[in-house]
Design goal:
291 residues, two-stranded antiparallel ribbon, 2 strands
């Protein structure tokens, strides 16, 4: 058992369990996450999907999905701001701890409630809509349990800070330094060990979520369609040179009295190559195969 100081005058005892949880487990989580994504992409590209159920039910989905996804984006942004940006930086730009704390609780509370409401609606829809429930796998159920637990425990830490007021725990002095220390492979175990149990629980559930992430439908988050921002515009081509040419062709067909435009009688075309007014795109392999 080791002892380390997280604040002047205070010592935190570091146990073997602390070393495993806050010094080893985060890197195990990263290995499983990255390795799982590589494995899934290599062996299960066709399963790399959300398995959308919009065709079965869309009324609740139109409300629940945006509420959950936009709320989750706000939660991620809040975690980034609170964990990655040091407290000294915000103080250097004139942001007091009280002002930061108020905004974090306000924005974090709204984002957490919105995300929780969205996931509850999604679970309700999946349970009460027959075809959607039949398409739900055991893998999906595990994912929903862990994801909901991570949201609930995160909201718990936020609301607990509200009731504790000025005496509440400042996670920017414990959890945030530990999180940043992981990136330089020098985990500040003492800092995380000094955080309250609620933060420990939220962190552990969050790591469990990332461990199962590559093996669930959540994997679609790593394939955001950014290429849509850079793809060329769709080009529409008119057939037979446009509407005017089309009308002229119709008139010539009318004057033909049973003769086709290329000279065939009785509606049968001659063996000569007919003029095409448009060209197929992306069908070379099919055309070659049919020759």
């Amino acid at each position: 058992m080791l002892a380390a100081e997280t604040e002047p005058g205070s010592a935190v005892e570091i146990t073997a369990l602390d070393i495993v949880l806050w010094g080893v487990l985060p890197y195990v989580m990263v290995v499983v996450l990255v390795g799982g994504l590589v494995w899934r992409y290599k062996y299960d590209q066709f399963g790399w999907t959300t398995r959308s159920s919009q065709l079965y039910e869309s009324r609740l989905l139109r409300i629940a999905s945006p509420l959950f996804h936009f709320g989750l984006l706000a939660v991620i942004a809040g975690h980034f701001f609170g964990l990655v940006i040091p407290m000294a930086w915000t103080q250097a730009v004139g942001m007091s701890q009280a002002f930061y704390h108020f905004n974090a609780l306000l924005v974090g509370g709204i984002a957490g409630v919105g995300t929780l409401g969205g996931i509850i609606l999604l679970i309700y829809r999946r349970r009460t809509t027959g075809p959607v429930f039949m398409a739900t796998t055991g893998n999906d159920k595990t994912m929903y349990v862990v994801l909901t637990a991570a949201i609930v425990f995160g909201l718990w830490t936020t609301l607990a800070s509200v009731f504790e007021g000025e005496h509440g725990h400042n996670y920017r002095e414990t959890v945030a330094p530990w999180f940043r220390s992981l990136f330089i492979v020098q985990p500040d175990i003492a800092a995380m060990a000094g955080a309250p149990f609620s933060f420990h629980l939220h962190t552990l559930v969050g790591m469990a979520l990332f461990v199962i992430w590559p093996f669930t439908r959540l994997v679609h988050a790593f394939t955001a369609p950014f290429h849509y921002l850079f793809r060329p515009y769709i080009v529409y081509r008119s057939r037979d040179g446009g509407a005017a040419t089309g009308r002229a062709t119709d008139r010539s067909r009318g004057r033909g009295a049973g003769k086709s435009t290329d000279g065939a009688v009785g509606g049968r075309r001659s063996t000569g190559a007919a003029r095409r007014g448009w060209s197929a795109v992306g069908t070379r392999d099919r055309d070659t195969r049919n020759r």
